[in-house]
Structures are given as structure tokens and as C-alpha cells.
Amino acid sequence: MRIKITHTILVIFALLTFSCDDYLDLRPQDGTVRQDFWKTKEDIKAAVIGIYSSMLNSPPSVSDRTLAEYLFMYGELRGDMIAPGPNVIDEQTDVITSNILPSNSITSWATFYRIINYCNTVIDLAPAVLEEDPTLTQEQLDNYLAEALTIRAYMYFTLARSFKDVPLKLEATLSDEDNFQLPVTPQQQIFEQVKIDLEKAESLATEDYGNIPENKGRITKHAINAIQTDVYLWTGEYQNALEAADKVINSGNYSLIVATNNWFNTVYARGNSSESIFEFQYTPQNLNPFYNIFLQRPQFLAAPSVLEDVFGVDYDDPENKDIRGERAAMVPGTNEIYKYTGLNENERKALQNSDTHWFVYRYAGVLLLKAEVLNQLGRGAEALEIIEEIREAREAIQATSQNVNPDNKNAVTDYILAERSRELAFEGKRWFDILRNARRNEYERLDILIAVAINSAPPSQQQSIVNKLQDPNSHYLPINEYELYTNKELTQNPFYN
Amino acid sequence: MNKVLNTAFFWRLSLLAVLAIVIINCTSEKYKESTDETLNITGYLENNTEQYSMFLEILETTNYSTFMNTYGTYTLFLPTNQAVQNYLNEEGFSSISDIPIEDLEDLAKLHVLEERIETTSFNDGKISTPSMQGQYLITGAVNIDGSSNITVNKDARITTSNIEVGNGIIHVIDKVLKVANKTLAKMIDNNESLSIFATALKETGWYEVLDKPLTYDNDSIPSYLTVIAQSDEVFSQNGINSYTELEDTYSHLNNPTNPKDSLNLFVAYRIIPGLNYLADLVGTSTVLTKAPLEVIGIKLKRDSIVLNEETFNGVFEEGVAIKRDASDITASNGAIHFVDDNFFIKKRFPSPVYFDPADQPEFRQLSAVFRKPGNYASLNSSELSEINYEGSYDLTYASPPIGDRTGRGWHGDVLELVRFRTGVTNNLEFTTPVIIKGQYKVWVSYRASDRQPRVKAFFNGQELPRIANFSEYGNTELPERVLESQGYKRHIYPYDNAFYSRLMGIINVETTGRHKFMLQSTEYAGYNTWLDVIEFRPVDMDQLYPKFESGGDGLIYESDIN
Does the keyword Signal apply (chain A) (predicted)? Predict the structure, then answer.
């Protein structure tokens, strides 16, 4: 009897201690630990592809917005081409009306830093695989590193354009002992780092993956050059920007597609066209987030003035229209944003086929960046030629053409901006275009930004918004209060104190 | 047996004890004993005395510190010690206790709102909730030396905003807000640059009106007034250098106190009922003034506010701009704005308005559809800025193909309703074009068909006497003047009896401006309804001619036909 009881107790104890033990096992249930990973070139490839897929949609364990949504909101909400839709949330309206508080969840940069960390992990750990896996060549490794470096650079480039000063973390966060308490790095230094990374990536990257989807969906040398053009324009290094733009243009890989009934379907609905340089490759298996926010429960609409003021309307001849406007960027009347949900001029995609890509860089965008560079270099006439080339390809209408003196830098700038608003409508570029041109030469063209605010602000808030925007710090987003709470080294943008 | 039981009992007991120890060990948790440690407003001040001790002293002296520490939703505009000290120096007090207690109470209450308001809901004008003192606070933004701040009452800058506390929210300001204790009349009188305007106020008797303290009527609506003042400089730009010259120019009865005298109207036209800061004015297109039934038209043109700028019958009339920086002055009983040019009531005579209900700005944008035969477009209520209706169905702009009878209305287009009845589309309310004040006959024309409802019309909510039966086809036999006397007309030319026009009644348009015109179906409809034109013709005008060109844009005069 006693033995029986003793045994029972032993068994119970054993069970109790075993069940208590489970949480001591630190191995993740849904992944591989580092000691087992980073052994072969397949591991590197998986990690790099992981970076791309984290740009498409957030991993299942987190529930924040996708990168494409942030890129759209950061690039468009503060511009003048968006109006709140019926399903807009207050936080989005507050960004539209420059009423941004640090508690606004749109200012969360978690998605960006998560992707940066994925990039950092590849950059830190991939080189060691060279010793483990003899089948991995130096060239393959270089290509992978170029991809990670470029994506990290683009993330920081976007953060610095949106938040101004942000923490710069270049090593992977691998354990809890890593230092998370990082102060902000000034915008200028972030840009410097971006330039260094891009230069290094350019020397390592491949030009051709051997198939179109990868050439448009992964980082190639020319995608790097496109980003470089943009970055050098922000830092005012026009000669470098020109060289980078010319590398893209002279590569012969890209061309403008002639205006036909198929143009919208080719460039946008199907994507990966000859106009495309780098796109987020959404597929029917991995849908984009746009169907919901633009069509089913529209958070955003095109601003009512867009059809007439941006694309122009020929009241006498309805057939005479800019192919980029009606039923390409938007639907007249309802002002629905159509670019990401349309299949062709007449039909929308079905929900299960909502795979329109997010367009990071397109050829026409780089051409217009080059025009901007040329104008800054005092070659206004060449800039106007580029505008004309694009306008002709897009069948732009007479109402939106401007007669500009090529020597009048400001007038050429305005024309380029107007053309960019037509060409890149709702592609997350508008606010950055305005800001880049306004802040050039110590905010020489603050008037551009103010004029945009005057035209788009709600009448009852117009004066407050205009006065707020006189402060350059207000052009950037506040650091989210959650980040300030967890990272005591951060200092808030003084405008938001 | 007993022993065995005892042993077993002993073992069981010890087993339980061991288990209990093990389990308790596993679940030791520390519970927080307080529910909430968030500070309330007074607590926040007490914890930050180095910055806010003086305002805390104000709250304590006035005995408000207790309720500011109770549960509630407050907004506090909290002046720093430096701000309070500056205030004392300016007002010549040596300490807070020197300020008379009533004034101090008012001052304290002016800084508190009984609602939690974040800076995100501020605009260029007043905060929607008044302060506890009763006065409204106005917000804005200012840029000084390159850095921008939100402001309260024009010159107090918010240095730290949206501090969350247990019973509300705190915005720290760098200046004490002052209670406006002068009336509109006194403020205008004290302003040297307004001497002509002030004299005009006194001579016309409006001074007393503007000098009355704030009162509340039976519905507790306050008696605020808004004045658009005009400086001596503006007068002299218009060749008026003294009050006498102003009187000579305007007073046509030589009795400025007479409400019918033009000078009295000149002043009355500058007084707007209600508390209207500029941000309130830009939200409306017209405001009524104290001049009987006279309105001021308001337009936001880029960033300037212009008064009475309109295009009438194709003629552009330039407006008068408000001086934005100088305006938005708060008085105890209202607000004052300034204009940069002279303006006066525009004398206008009633003129006809032919309102095509299908001509909506959103349809007009669809250049491929609008007035292009064979095209249709549908939009719903939320997409149409100038039409409201009940029901979730779209309204359709229809420009039927050439040859289609429905295309024989004016401009060849109609506004189509799927079914004009409750449950589908009803209470269809239009914003009319500008109608000049006067008396008008209202004609509604439609494309007739079977199974159409009877329709009532309302002008600004007031029902018109007659009912139109939309299934009634045009009478082609009776002479048109006889028909007119019966309240019908064949409004298009050449005529097609599928179109018919019905006199709904006579309206009195009291103010010049855009108005609301509503059509209401009173019964079942079994087919689409189409609207062609809604005419507002002055009563003394010919009600038949001009007619409308069938399928075209022209107007057909009697002389064109004979």
C-alpha cells in the first residue's frame, strides 16, 4: 500500500515538474533558430525572399499595416490629391489636415524597422555562409547582399523623408541583450548612409536575374540607380543624380509604352511592363491591401479637383483625354481611386485577383527626376523636352500644357511637378515631390508647399494649417509616443512638443 | 482497520499539503492594489509646482482646486508661472491675492472647458465648447522665428499640448488668457482708426444695440453680434473723410435713426447676428445681416475671404476682402472683423432662373457623358454635393440617344430617378442657383409616363400649394394662354406632349442667394421618373416665353416663332 502511494506521488511529481518545464524551452515553434540556419546558400536565399515578402504583407504574428499602405499614406495624405473617403478613420483625416499627434498610429514606424532588421540579419550573417557552403559563390553572395543593402537604404531614405531624424541601426538585432536605446541620427547623416549603402550595393548587384518577374520584383543595378537619382536630388548633388538617371535611361531596358486601350492593363493591372523598374510583386496568392481601402470600404478618394486641375477635361471633345486620368488613376464622378483595382478601362479586378503591384519606381518617374536634375543644372530646355516626350506618349491634353520659358527655373519646376502629379498620381510620390522641391536651397520654394495647403485645406482650418507649415519641422511626422516610451534616448521633433 | 485508515488519511493529507505548496509556488502573483494612479488636473499641478504653482494658487484662492480634482472631462489651458507673472506685471498687481476675487474667478474659469478637447479638433475659429466663464476661446496657429505653434485667443501659444490626465486634458500656454470685458460698441469707440464708423454707430442708434451686455433668450440662444468694421482709412480711400461726408453720401432721408434711411441700412448691413469668427463665415456662402433680409455673400478665394463677389447674368462683380490678420477680435458680446474696401447693399431686380436639375457639378465633370446624346451616368447621394435625398439608389444623369422621346427636353437631358417613392428615392432636395429676392412663380417640368406619382414641392421647407401629377401628358389642344391660366404649359419648342410643365405655386424669395428646393412623392411609383427644368420666373414676367429648345440649349422667344 505504502509503495503504491509512494509511486503515485512520484508519478504526480514527475508530471508536475515536466509540465512546468515546457516554458524553459526557448526554441521557437514557428521558425528555425540561428544555430540551425545560415548553413547553406538556400538559407540566404530564403532570408532574402523573406525580406521581399515582408514588404508585401506583414508576418502573421503582427497586425500592423502593410508597407505599401504606409508608403501610400506617407506619400499622399499630406499632398493635395487625396480626399477622405466614407471609411476614413480620424487618424487619417488628422494627417490630411496637418493635425498630427504623436499618439496617431499612422506615425508608427515598426513595419519599416522590422524590414530593416531582416536586411541587417542578412548583411550580418550571410557572409559567414561562404565558409559553410562550398557551392555558394562570391558573386551569389554579393547579389544577395546588394538586395539587402538596397532595401535597407530605401527604408531609411523613406524614414528620413517622412520623420527627418530617425535612429540608425545597421546591425542585426539577434538577442534581447542588444541595445535598443538608440538616439536619433540627423536626416543628413541618414542620407549619407543611404548613399554609401547604395554605392556599395551598386557594385555588388546583378543586372539581370534571367526572367522578367524577378527583374521587376527584385533589386537590380538599375533599380539602385533609380533610387540613387532620387536620393541625390534630395541631397542636392545634381551631377551624381544625372549620372545615376542616365545609367537607367541608357541601359536600354526600359521604354515608354504607346498609348492604346491596353496601356492601363499593361502598365498597372498586369505590371512588370517595360516601364517598370521596381514593383512589389503581389499575386493572387498574396493579395495587395488596396482592394479594401480603395474599393470595398474606401478610406481615400481622389480630391474633387484632381480630374479638372491635374488631368484636365476637354469639354468639347470627350475623346480627347490624358490616358493617365480617367479610368486609369481615378473614376470621374465618384472620384474613386482606380489605379490599383482596375483591370482595364471598363472592368475592375475581382477581389480574389486583386494583385496590382505597388510601383516603387517607373521609367517615366525616373525621366521626370532627370528633368528636375537638368533644370537644377540650368538645362531647362532639355528638361522641357523630357516633359514633352512624356506628354506625347500619354496623350496629355492641351488644357494641361504650359508655355514655359526654359530659363525660368521656378516655372520649369512647377511644370515638372504638375507633370509628375499626372504621371505618378496616387503612387505615393506627391508629398515627397512637393517637399523635395520646397526645401531645396534653404526652403527657397516654400511657396509651393503653402499653395498646395491653401488649395487643399478645409476652409475653416486653412489659416492654422498654413501657419503651421511655415515651420519646417511640421513637414515631418512626429515620433510615435510608443517609441518614445520604450526608447528613452529618442528626442521628439520639437514641433510636436 | 482504524490504523490503515489513519495511515491512508495521513498520506492523503501530506499529499494535499505538498500539492498545495507546489501549486501556490507556481501561481505566486503580485496584485496591484490601487486601480489607477493617473493624476487628476490638480494633482498634476501639485506634482509640477516649479512650473505651475501660480495657477495652482489661483485655483486654490478661488476654491476651484477641489472640483478640478474630481472625476470629469475637462480641458485646461494652463499658463506657466512665467505667464502668470507677466500677467501680474502687466495689470499692475503685486501678487495673486491682489486681484479681486470675482475677476480671479472669471479668469480661472476662462481657462477651463467642460469637455475634453484635443488640439486635433481646433480650427481657425472658436472651440465648439465655451469656456466655463461663458466666453468662447479661439484657436489658430502662428509662426514666430521659423517655429510654429498653435495659439489660443490669438497670442497665447501652446507650448506643450494634449497632456492626458485622469479627468481631462491639459494644454500648456505661455500667456494668460484675458477675459474680454468690453462690449463691441466700446471696443469700436476706443479704436482711434474707427472714428467715422463709431460716429455712424452713434448717429444711427446702433451704438446702444452693440453696447448691450450678452443676454439669452427663452431658448437660451445668446445675443452675440458680429460687426464688420470699416476704418477711416478705407473710408477716405473712397472719398469719405468725415462722418458728415458719410452722412451726405448715404443718408437719403436725412434721418439716420430711421431704419429705412440708407445710412442706417449701411450700418445695419455690417452687423451680423450670432458669434461668427472668420472660420465660421467661410463655412457658409451667405449670412443674413441686421439690414432686413439683406445678405452678405461670402467666398473663400485661395486664402482670402471676399464679400459679395458674384457673377450675375454673366457679369463678374468683384468682391471686398476681409483683413484676416486684424480680424477675429473678441468683445464681451461678439466679434469684430475689418474690411479693406467700402461695400454696400447691392440693388438687384428679380430675374428668372431656369434650373436644370440634371446640371450638377459632378455630372458636368463627366465630359464624355454630359449633354452627349446616348450617354448615362449614375451617382449616389453622397457623391452629389448639391442634391440630397432619402434612399440608397443612385440618381442617373440621362442624355438619351437622338430620336428617343425622353431626349426631347431642354439640353436633351433629364435627371432620372429609378422610382420616385418612399423606400427608393424620395424627398429629393436641390440647392438652387442664386435667386435674387422677390416673388416668383415656380414651374416644374417632367417627362410624363404611366405609373408616375403625384409630387409636392417645398421651397426652403415651405410647401407650395399645387401638386403635379407626373403621369399627366401634355394637352395639345387648348390655346397656351388658356392652359397657362390653369397652371400648365408646353414649355419646350418644338413641342412633344411627353413633356409638360406644371405651376407649383408662387414663392417669396426673401434673401438673395442659393436656396433649398425639394420635391416629394406622395404615392407609389411604378416606373422611372424624369425631371427636365425647374423654372423660377418673376411674377411680373411672361410665364410662357422664352420657351426651351427641345433637345438643344437655346431659349425660344415669342418673336422667334412668329
Answer: yes
| Nearest-Cα residue of chain A relative to residue B139 | A464
pTM score, whole prediction: 0.83
Report which residue type is found at A233. L
B12 SS3 class: helix
Nearest CA among A219, A289, A281 for reference residue A53: A281
CATH architecture for residues A34-244+478-496: Alpha Horseshoe (1.25)
Are A467 and B19 in contact (CB < 8 Å)? no
* B330-354 as b/e: b if 16+ CB within 10 A: bbbbbbbbbbbebbbbeeeebebbb
Distance CA A476, CA A474 (A): 5
State whether A471 and B143 contact (CB < 8 Å): yes
pLDDT tens, residue order, chain B (562 aa): 555 557 777 888 888 887 776 666 655 566 666 667 788 999 999 999 999 999 999 999 999 988 888 888 999 999 999 999 999 999 999 999 999 999 999 999 999 999 999 999 898 888 988 999 989 999 999 998 888 999 999 889 999 999 999 999 999 999 999 999 899 999 999 999 999 999 999 999 999 999 999 888 887 788 999 999 999 999 999 999 999 999 999 998 989 999 999 999 999 999 999 999 998 898 777 888 998 888 898 888 888 999 988 877 678 888 999 998 899 999 999 999 999 999 988 877 888 999 999 999 888 878 788 888 899 999 988 888 899 999 889 999 999 998 899 999 999 999 999 999 988 899 999 999 888 888 999 999 999 998 899 999 999 999 999 999 999 999 999 999 999 999 999 999 999 999 999 999 999 998 888 899 999 999 888 899 999 999 999 998 999 999 999 988 888 888 887 6
Give the CATH fold of the B41-173 domain: FAS1 domain (2.30.180)
Fold of the domain spanning B184-338: FAS1 domain (2.30.180)
Does residue B494 have a cis peptide bond before it, meaning omega lies within 30 degrees of 0? yes
Tell whether A2 is within 8 A of chain B (Cβ). Answer: yes
Residues 6+ apart with CB under 8 A from A8: none
Please indicate whether the domains covering B41-173 and B353-561 agree at the CATH topology level: no
Q: A residues 354-413 near B, CB within 8 Å?
A: none
B353-561 folds as Jelly Rolls (2.60.120)
Give the residue from chain B lying closest to A10, CA to CA: B15
Q: What is the ipTM of this complex?
A: 0.82
Residue-range domain boundaries for chain B: 41-173, 184-338, 353-561
